[in-house]
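dumping this here before i forget
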Amino acid sequence: MDVSTMIQPPDSTRPRLRGSQIAIPCWFMRGGTSRGPFFRADDLPRDPISRDAVLLAAMGSPDVRQIDGLGGGNPLTSKVGIVGLSERANADLEFQFAQLQPDSDLVDLTPNCGNMLAAVVPFALEAGLLAPHGDTTTARVLTLNTGLAAEIIVSTPVGDSGRYVEYSGDARIDGVPGMASPISINFLDTAGSVCSALLPTGNVRDRVELAGVGPVDVTCIDNGQPLVIIAASALGRTGYESAAALNADEELTSHLEPLRLTCGELMGLGDVTAKNYPKMTLVSPPRHGGAISTRSFIPHVCHDSIGVLAAVTAATACVLDGTVAREVATVARGTEITVSIEHPAGEFSVELGIDPDDPQHVTKSALLRTARLIMAGDVLVPRSTWLSSAVTSQEKQR
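structure:
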């Protein structure tokens, strides 16, 4: 098979042969507190087996250091964004998020990532998928992983050579150094993003028997990210420990995974052993003027801050009467509420809209993130990776 037949068109802006390797256009971007390479969907192999093989090679997985690729040796820096134009009437762009792990050959397309979502529209503008259309450019993005839709607004002022994506600004998010231009993300419908409903067990609170601990109360909830929320005190922890301390706490992690597996079944997710959700989230009363303090696991490593959609889901749990989160949270009443989620690196504010006729119904969730283009060029993968993966894919289809 001639590898050149799989790479069309063969010009400097598309995948092309370069000696024994294939050069694939790539924009390396930070989105919120995550980062990773972004690709145009048309620049990657169409069949999933070939695509996954190329992504693994690009990131350097499986290898704990990801020394032979772009990965950063951490789940937060082992992420990939794939973006294409949408033909749907209700979306401008389609985003596929891929979660890779440093030491695994799994390419997981089931979860969401709100941090990487923040970089989708800037990427689309940089990669020529969209043209800026004013001082701000607004695009509706559909996340293919779960069907989540969001309206994203990016600053695109006029410069010497026309409009450009503005990355400088006065917005700051905890977990990222410096200041940057704000990116507004308005989620359109996040309830039951992966699960069947906002409260997939049908309850605001469930009691689960945990070996070695006894019965514990949890809230199983999905408003963009499936979470299992448990009071840190129920596991004998304060909830204010550092991420490093919690990662080194073998007794805690020995309790969290069995609890996650049990709750995964309760949430209708089946066996979640190999899945990146639900995320376990320890909660405790706020310490720094926020609504609640959190420690979020992704799912086996404590997050240095908290994921975007995990923050949205945790904030939602704070305003629903009867949840584990509500019990320890400090939140105001009203129809427009800003919920400040404390995490190891600072805080994350989420704006929620509450139905005045049904206080248990969240009608809106919105937030600010930042993003930055770090590198634009080509990532190179072995020619044999693309070719052999395509051959393997065809053989499996016979």
